[in-house]
């Protein structure tokens, strides 16, 4: 079933009785060629690209809850390609190009809005780094513009430009960046994968990984054993727990990252803004709510909720940057479980177990990577070699120390900064 304006009108005139379920709800079959553990954005995107790009159909996505119920539905929806280091720069550039054609590819409105992103800087040193970062982005083929204070003021007048402690020196503007509707991204990929024959199996928790003679043979689940030639682990903050079923210890810590949304307001912020003197970022949704977030809760946790001190810290940053929003009522907050890697960059790689593959370590920004991650992981699963955009996302870099990608310059314990 393809969506179109004409179809919406026709259904509206006939009582909307002709719509079909967006995806099936099948029972698991005894065996698949590939099993993907995790029905979030990355797992669903992997299934879609396996079917679309590689012609594979005998695939199952196993989700312990409901599709899109994890981090893909618990984030601040930012999409960008403004990275500096080789490896990250190529990957996110490729992912942004996929975003730009995603709605046509999926025949689904994911509400991708290229409203731009401004990374503010507040010192000479931050400005110099922003210029270097902008040059790296341009060299990669992406867009970057350095704004002076007047340029920022013209675009985001609500910022407090009179703050003597954190004066605004300017901003790095990334016009092709923006936002997308998080749950619509999950639904769009789920619908597209299902339409190509992929089984999306909800309420099916993986409880064990079967291995014989160094090779994966399937998984144990709450709905019985399922055999498979290949298994991909794509479970974000649960990566360490699932990998432990295969007796693997990953260089991953799981932390909670909170996000917040206010009541609906008239349009006051046209773009995404990040505060250079505090880990804070904000945009305004299409429904008018201000959507914002900050830093991690600095202790390991598997709870999808955050602590009040971190919430207070985020609100303080919001008030420092934009005091005018202080009267807005906060409606709700939520927490996603982040899989934090030591260098803050992801892993898309084979494991030492034949047929077992890993996709993890997305840290703060897994949402913007959804199409690129799915595309690269599907290539790895189908071809047994990394896609060129993700060639540096090797697991062994943490063992050897070679090829580390510390994008934010935070040292070997990214999760502690």
Which key phrases capture this entry?
417 residues; alpha/beta; eight-stranded mixed beta sheet; 11 helices; 28% helix; 26% strand
Give me a quick take on this structure:
This protein is α/β, with parallel strands linked by helices and 417 residues long. It has helices at residues 5-13, 41-54, 88-100, 102-106, 124-140, 149-155, 182-195, 239-244, 308-321, 370-383, 397-400, and strands spanning 31-37, 59-62, 78-79, 117-121, 145-147, 170-174, 178-179, 199-201, 206-212, 215-221, 224-233, 253-264, 272-275, 280-284, 289-300, 330-340, 347-350, 356-360.
Quaternary form? single chain
Low-confidence stretches: none
Global mean pLDDT: 94
Structural class: alpha/beta
Number of helices: 11
| Termini Cα gap | 48 Å
Helix and strand run: HEHEEHHEHEHEEHEEEEHEEEEHEEEHH
Shape: globular
Total E-strand runs: 18
Please give the radius of gyration in angstroms. 21 Å
Helix content: 25-40%
| Strand composition percent | 25-35%
Largest sheet properties: 8 strands, mixed
């Amino acid at each position: 079933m393809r969506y179109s304006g004409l179809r919406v009108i026709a259904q509206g005139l006939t009582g909307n009785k002709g719509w079909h379920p967006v995806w099936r709800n099948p029972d698991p079959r005894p065996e698949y060629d590939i099993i993907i553990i995790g029905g979030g954005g990355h797992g669903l995107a992997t299934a879609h690209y396996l079917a679309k790009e590689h012609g594979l159909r005998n695939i199952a996505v196993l989700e312990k809850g409901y599709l899109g119920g994890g981090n893909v539905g618990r984030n601040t929806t930012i999409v960008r390609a403004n990275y500096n280091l080789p490896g990250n720069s190529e990957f996110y550039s490729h992912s942004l190009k996929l975003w730009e054609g995603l709605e046509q590819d999926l025949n689904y409105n994911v509400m991708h809005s290229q409203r731009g992103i401004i990374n503010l800087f507040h010192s000479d040193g931050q400005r110099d780094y922003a210029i270097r970062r902008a040059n790296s982005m341009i060299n990669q083929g992406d867009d970057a513009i350095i704004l002076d204070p007047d340029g920022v003021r013209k675009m985001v007048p609500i910022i407090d430009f009179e703050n003597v402690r954190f004066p605004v020196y300017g901003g790095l503007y990334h016009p092709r960046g923006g936002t997308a509707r998080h749950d619509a991204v999950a639904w769009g990929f789920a619908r597209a994968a299902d339409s190509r024959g992929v089984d999306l199996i909800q309420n099916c928790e993986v409880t064990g990984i079967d291995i014989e003679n160094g090779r994966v043979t399937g998984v144990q689940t709450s709905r019985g054993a399922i055999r498979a030639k290949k298994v991909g682990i794509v479970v974000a903050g649960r990566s360490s727990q699932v990998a432990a079923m295969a007796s693997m210890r990953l260089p991953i810590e799981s932390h909670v990252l909170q996000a917040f949304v206010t009541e609906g307001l008239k349009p006051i912020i046209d773009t995404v803004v990040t505060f250079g003197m505090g880990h804070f970022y904000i945009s305004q949704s299409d429904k008018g709510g201000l959507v914002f977030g900050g830093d991690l809760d600095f202790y390991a946790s598997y709870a999808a909720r955050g602590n009040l001190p971190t919430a207070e810290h985020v609100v303080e940053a919001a008030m420092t940057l934009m005091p005018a929003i202080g009267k807005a009522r906060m409606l709700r907050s939520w927490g996603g479980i982040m899989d934090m890697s030591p260098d803050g960059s992801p892993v898309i790689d084979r494991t030492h177990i034949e047929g077992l593959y890993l996709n993890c370590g997305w840290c703060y920004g897994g949402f913007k990577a959804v199409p690129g991650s799915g595309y690269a992981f599907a290539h790895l699963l189908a071809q047994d070699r990394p896609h060129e955009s993700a060639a540096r996302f090797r697991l062994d870099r943490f063992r050897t120390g070679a090829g580390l990608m510390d994008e934010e310059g935070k040292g070997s314990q990214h999760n502690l900064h």
